[in-house]
Design brief:
The chain is of the alpha+beta class. The protein has two domains: 3-123, Sandwich (Immunoglobulin-like); 140-380, Rossmann fold, CATH 3.40.50.1820. Helices cover 25% and strands 25% of the residues. The protein is built from eight helices and 19 strands. The protein has helices at residues 3-17, 195-204, 231-252, 269-280, 309-312, 320-326, 341-353, 369-380, and strands at residues 30-31, 43-44, 50-55, 62-65, 69-71, 73-74, 79-83, 90-98, 101-103, 110-112, 117-123, 140-148, 153-161, 175-179, 212-216, 262-267, 287-291, 329-335, 359-363. The strands form three sheets. Strands 12-13-15-14-16-17-18-19 form an eight-stranded mixed beta sheet, with helices on both faces. Strands 4, 5, 8, 9, 10 and 11 form a six-stranded antiparallel beta sheet that branches. α2 (195-204) packs parallel to α8. 42% of the residues are buried.
Length: 385
């Protein structure tokens, strides 16, 4: 495809994207909750199959990429459509491939979570209402900026304050610092993770104590560009959190201080950050939550045999009593269809055999937001009590 053809197709497709087709929504299907405004599709059937439509009359081939690639079919009006296999409940990123060029679907909300803005569909889970807005007192997600000494720049942070924060100017709260995964930033837990809704509901049900939740950007580059789980990258993250984020929060919000009143947790990459930072700094954090980390293995490039817990956290196997006395909660979770589950279970067995107090839970699903929402829901009920 030459450049002229590409631009003609691009503008043709996006002109028609904004138009609703005359096709009716099928019986038994409902618009997805992630649709923009009054768009009928994507629409979800009772068995969790999803119908996608897009008007692109100038295209010669259109595909849906939702982890699995589907070829869409074109009707006489230039509207392409496809119905997927049943999707597991939860949050799914997807894109439209139009003549091999990938686009976000303007019919759906877009989210930052794959290293770029991507369309996504949230498939409701029957019986799971813990992340549904209810008629209960609501807290707030606040956006702020702090100066990072590590990065030498201003950075964004999102802060959840619980219901009643503004009413009692004397009350102080414990703080959960929660980290996103790779390809995400401070928007992940605030948007995809539905942190505020989960905490509002738990607090209203008296299943969790009122707490502040800090959602910072964990993409911290060490001098020389070191990233990942090496010591240089973990040191940079710890410096960011302890040297810039925590002082900003404790200077601007009414928080309780001391390790017992701080928790650090995270998903995937953020789970590895929480593991290293929390367990290496029990003077700062008395509660540690690790969700779906690939640190223990199961993701190909990090085989289980390569992880040495004692080297990573000196004393965790040889002096577990020290960690037991300092940590109120040490929690690990993973999805039951996540390839990380077997290495995670193996390290749990190792920890317990050495006498380390560790709490473990697993949830149906793979490496996905539904598992992480449930992990937060579970972890938040265990801390600060």
């Amino acid at each position: 495809m030459n450049r002229k053809t590409f631009y003609l197709l691009f503008f043709s497709c996006f002109f028609f994207f904004g138009k609703k087709s005359n096709a009716q929504i099928p019986d038994g299907a409902k618009p997805a909750p992630t649709n923009i405004h009054s768009n009928d599709c994507p629409c979800i059937f009772s068995d969790n199959r999803v119908l996608f439509r897009v008007a692109a009359p100038g295209a010669t081939k259109v595909q849906l990429d939702i982890g699995k690639l589907y070829n869409m079919q074109k009707n006489e009006k230039g509207v392409w459509s496809v119905t997927t296999d049943p999707l597991v409940p939860g949050f799914h990123y997807y894109s439209l491939a139009i003549d091999s060029f990938k686009f976000a679907d303007p019919a759906s909300e877009s989210f930052y979570g794959t290293g770029k803005m991507s369309s996504a569909i949230d498939v409701p889970e029957a019986g799971a209402d813990f992340y549904t807005i209810k008629n209960v007192p609501h807290g707030e997600i606040r956006s702020a900026n702090y100066f990072s000494k590590t990065m030498n720049t201003w950075r964004a942070v999102n802060i959840y304050t619980p219901p009643g924060y503004e009413k009692d100017a004397t009350k102080r709260y414990p703080v959960l610092y929660i980290q996103h995964g790779g390809g995400e930033d401070e928007r992940g837990w605030a948007v995809q993770g539905k942190t505020n809704i989960i905490l509002d509901n738990l607090i209203a049900e008296k299943k969790a104590v009122s707490m502040i939740v800090v959602i910072a950007n964990g993409n911290v580059t060490a001098p020389g560009g070191a990233t990942g789980y090496n010591d240089a990258a973990m040191t940079a993250f710890k410096e960011e959190l302890a040297g810039s984020v925590i002082p900003f929060i404790e200077s601007n919000y009414r928080v309780k201080i001391g390790a017992a009143n701080r928790a650090v947790s995270g998903l995937s990459m953020g789970g590895g950050q929480a593991f290293y930072t929390g367990l290496r700094n029990t003077d700062l954090f008395g509660n540690v939550g690790v969700f779906s980390t690939g640190l223990f293995g199961g993701i190909g490039r990090q085989p289980a045999a390569a992880f040495d817990a004692e080297t990573a956290i000196p004393g965790i196997l040889t002096n577990p009593q020290s960690f037991n006395s300092k940590l109120k909660v040490f929690y690990i979770s993973v999805g039951e269809q996540d390839p990380r589950i077997e290495p995670t279970k193996k390290i749990i067995e190792t920890f317990k055999s050495k006498g380390l107090n560790v709490q473990f839970n697993s949830f149906p699903g793979g490496h996905e937001w539904q598992v992480w929402r449930k992990s937060l829901h579970d972890f938040a009920q265990r801390i600060f009590k």
